[in-house]
Amino acid sequence: MLSKEDQRRFEQITRHLRESDPAFFARLDNRARGRHGRWLLLLTVLLWAALPATTVLAGRLAGAIFAVVLLTNAALMWRFRQRWL
Question: What does the alpha-carbon distance between residue 78 and residue 82 come to, in Å, rounded to a whole number?
Fold first, then answer.
């Protein structure tokens, strides 16, 4: 955790970087977004792999609910795919 003074200084440096070199700042922002998207995609794949086990262990209703949630997740990821790449 940063102190208030350190936080203020960090935001000042960040603001200066954003203003002085917007292309560099945009590349950094895109890299962070890409890492987030990869983790979300990995989580989605793992949840899809767990669907059959969930259906067997928790029953068909739980499996159906799980599948609907995952289909919604897949549709949203597809719709907003530019944000995750």
Answer: 9
